[in-house]
Amino acid sequence: MSRLVPHPFLTLGLVLIWLMLTRFSLGHLLLGMLVAVIAGWAMSALQPERPRLRRGSAIPRLLGIVAWDILRSNAAVAWLILTGSRGGTRRSGFLHVPLRLRHPSALAVLAIIVTATPGTAWLEYDQESGVLLLHVFDLVDKAQWLDLIQNRYEARLLEIFE
Amino acid sequence: MSHLDTVPLWAAIPAALLVLLGSGLTLLGTIGLVRLNGFYDRLHAPTLGTSWGTLGIVLASVILFSTLEHRPVLHDVLIGLFVTVTTPVTLMLLGRAALHRDRAEQAPGVPPAMLHPPTSEQVPLEQSP
User: Fold this and answer.
1) Number of domain units in chain A
2) Strand, helix or coil at A135?
3) Is residue A144 domain-shared with residue A126, that is, in the same domain?
4) Member of which family (chain A) (predicted)?
5) Is the distance from CB of A31 to CB of A44 less than 8 angstroms?
6) Most buried of A9, A62, A101, B55, CB within 10 angstroms?
7) Average pLDDT in the B94-105 region?
8) Which residue from B50, B51, B115 is facing A124, i.e. has the nearest CB?
């Protein structure tokens, strides 16, 4: 089984995407499974570092938090643009965030979260020291942003991965 | 027009609101891109369009076409998924290119390079003829 389907989650996801893009029928299910299994072999030929989930049950909660934060920061940034950056008093700035996360997949997820949330932009990450350089659109309180990244997102990712 | 006449009101209202929300946020993002000062500030504005801007339009499309075709039409969700997953690639590329340029020009207010080991990024550009 593991030789035929080396990446079960990837293969399952690809079958689902195939069915969503076409129609739910037996023919498309078989065709989608064929494509997904071949894609799984191609993936294992690349030999990626496998992400190991420790507590997958924490994923829905993280997704919910992120969706809410994205909505909130959308409103905040939209308001800042509408009001002309609070009459010109808004100040943006760079922020160094020391991270404990090391797993590439977990870092990729964090990058997606940070980017998808308007108001924070991931600029660069130093693998050796584990320091992330962010640019924050509305940098009022540095500690608050550090807390957001380290405790709200990173701690939950540490819980999920490794 | 014939299609739109068959949309029931309970689906048309949320779909219209979501389209307005999504396109409104995308419009604000582009306005911000024009009006904000400095590259790093401008980097933030278009993310309005790639997050809830896209999501609003995609959700409206799901609601509208699911009611029109009397079956769940979910493939639009994939647009949102792929936009979300691929945006960081472009954004990081642009951000790091800007950092590289500003450090080379020794622009004020830009944090110094911290990447180990020292790479060609730290070599100032003035050495070129």
Assistant:
1) 2
2) strand
3) yes
4) Belongs to the CPA3 antiporters (TC 2.A.63) subunit E family.
5) no
6) B55
7) 89
8) B115
A19 and A65 assigned to the same domain: no
User: How would you class A147 by CB atoms within 10 Å of its CB: exposed for 0-12, middle for 13-18, buried for 19 or more?
Assistant: exposed
ipTM of the complex: 0.75
Regions of chain A with pLDDT less than 70: 1-2, 49, 162
CB B111 within 8 A of CB A94: yes
pLDDT at position B22, please?
92
pLDDT at position B121: 46
At residue B24, the pLDDT reads 93
Are both A41 and A117 inside the same structural domain?
no
B66 at A interface, C-beta within 8 A: no
Query: Who wins on pLDDT, B35 or B24?
Result: B24
- Secondary structure percentages of chain B, helix, strand, coil, to 5: 75, 0, 25
Instruction: Name the residue range of residue A75's domain.
Output: 56-160
Section B8-24 average pLDDT: 90
Closest CA of chain B from A6, distance in Å: 23
The answer to whether position A123 is within a domain reads: yes
**Contact check, Cβ <8 Å, A121/B47:** yes
Q: Copy the structure tokens of residue A48.
A: 């990626």
Chain A residues touching residue B31 (CB < 8 angstroms): 81
The answer to whether residues A40 and A76 belong to one domain is: no
Do A61 and A85 have their domain in common?
Answer: yes
- Residue A122 falls inside a structural domain: yes
The pLDDT of residue B107 is above 60: yes
With bands split at pLDDT 50, 70 and 90, how would you rate the model's confidence at B105? confident
Q: Are residues A140 and A91 in the same domain?
A: yes
**A29 and A109 both lie in a single domain:** no
Predicted pLDDT at B57: 93
User: Which among A102, A110, A111, A114 is positioned nearest to A49, based on CA atoms?
Assistant: A102
CA A25 – CA B63 distance, rounded (Å): 22
| CB contact (8 A) between residue B51 and residue A92 | no
Domain contains A2: no
